Amino acid sequence: CCPLFYDEGYVRLGSAKGVYARNYVRFYERIRDFQVHSDDIWVASFPKCGTTWTQEMVWCIVNDLDFEGAKVGLQKRFPYFELRANWSPNLTKMITQTVLEGSKSEGQPNENEDNENSDSNREFFLNSFNLVENLSRPRFVKTHLHYSLLPEALKNENSPKMIYVARNPKDACTSFYHHSCLLDGYSGSLEDFVDAFTSDNVFCAPFWTHLREFWEVRDRKNVLFIKYEDMKKDLPSIIRQTAEFVGKSLTDEQVKILEKHLSFESMKNNPSVNYEDIVGNMRKMHGTAHDSKFMRKGKVGSWKDEMTPEMVAKLDAWIAENNIDGLYES
Ligand code: A3P
Question: Which InterPro entries does the record associate with it (predicted)?
Answer without folding.
Answer: P-loop_NTPase, Sulfotransferase_dom
